[in-house]
Amino acid sequence: MNNHVMPTYARLPVCFERGEGVWLLDNDGNRYLDAISGIAVCNLGHAHPAVTAAITQQAGKLVHTSNLYRIELQETLADALVSASSMDNVFFCNSGAEANEAAIKLARKYGHGLDVEKPTIVVMEGSFHGRTLATLSATGNRKTQEGFEPLVDGFERVPYDDMGAISAIDNSNVVAVLVEPVQGEGGVRIPHPNYLRHLREICNQRGWLLMLDEVQTGMGRTGSMFAFQQAGILPDVFTLAKALGNGVPIGACLARGTAAEILTAGKHGSTFGGNPLACAAALAVLKTLREENLVDRAHILGSAIAESLRTELGGNLHVIEVRNQGLMIGIQLDKPCGELVGLALEKGLLINVTAETTIRLLPPLILSDEIARHLVEQLIGIVDAYL
Ligand code: PLP
């Protein structure tokens, strides 16, 4: 163990040297099936040839220039994202937290434009939006916030998936709602199918911006390119990161209509945001998702895996529920199950446990039927032995 890395992570005792599609190889030559994709990042698997080619070609040409100048690949990527999402424009940054920071700043400035005294954003219990000060303040998990007080002001919290609580808000400072279409870190919590539509309606009625955090749900993960597309609505703002670059750090905050006119010259920025290397990777990701039809694949495969898990684990008294939206899959147990991560690792399977009692699977979208069956069989063996 290296003592010079700040100990901010409880790391598992394994170190990977190489990746090939859905497999990771450690430096002793052992092979692991990656059912977590670097936490919803490597949706195309590891070392996808299209991404590797895009990065290597771009690295040989130009990595970085700064946003002092036009960046053609950034403009091309913005066009591609706007056309995929029906938004109007994009701000590029480097991570999910930064993308959400941009959204938070945008909402505050929108509020000040309306002469709102203390612009306030409605956020959810159980949410996760990042680790910067504003995003951890927006996050609905006390553990993430503890020790970092004073928190950033200007957030009002309500229970997730509870329209009554939103409708009951009586605060003239509210200017926006920030919400995950599916809560990932919160335990793969999937709201009622009408939830986003209802939020859209109430935001329209009250003049609030609807801002979706699609950092985990975006880029095909839930069976549509962006999760909001399944609800048949458009947000005013949404954020992306994680799978956008398949591992090359890039984040994005997209806006539409009035919201697209808020962040003007000098109001926000990032040295690295949207540099040529990151944009080349993201363009390759978008192209590959389309060419390999991986978004539909996430829907079909997610349903098949979840159905098998329901059938096989349904009889187990400790399994409360198997939830999925596309390849965002949660197995809710009736007890804490963090140890399962280490047990699965010993068997060559990478999984994750979130919200203490939910086994979370976020496999790459390139998973074959055969390996999906292998994943289910292996997981069932591990879970059955544990429970
Ligand atoms: N938003 C959501 C929904 C996330 O799941 C995460 C990370 O897990 C973030 C924001 C923060 O992203 P990052 O770690 O890239 O800052």
Give the strand order, joined by hyphens, for the main sheet: 4-10-9-8-7-5-6
Number of strands: 15
What bound compounds does this protein have?
Answer: pyridoxal-5'-phosphate
Oligomer: single chain
Q: Given the helix and strand composition, which structural class is it?
A: alpha/beta
Instruction: State Rg.
Output: 21 Å
Total discrete domains:
2
CATH class of the largest domain: Alpha Beta
Structure explained in plain terms:
- Helix 2 packs antiparallel against helix 10, helix 3 packs parallel to helix 10 and helix 11 runs parallel beside helix 13.
- 37% of the residues lie in helices and 18% in strands.
- With 387 residues, the chain is of the alpha/beta class.
- The two termini are 32 Å apart.
- The longest helix is centred in the C-terminal third of the chain and has 20 residues.
- Bound molecules: pyridoxal-5'-phosphate.
- The site of pyridoxal-5'-phosphate (PLP) has 15 residues, from helix 4.
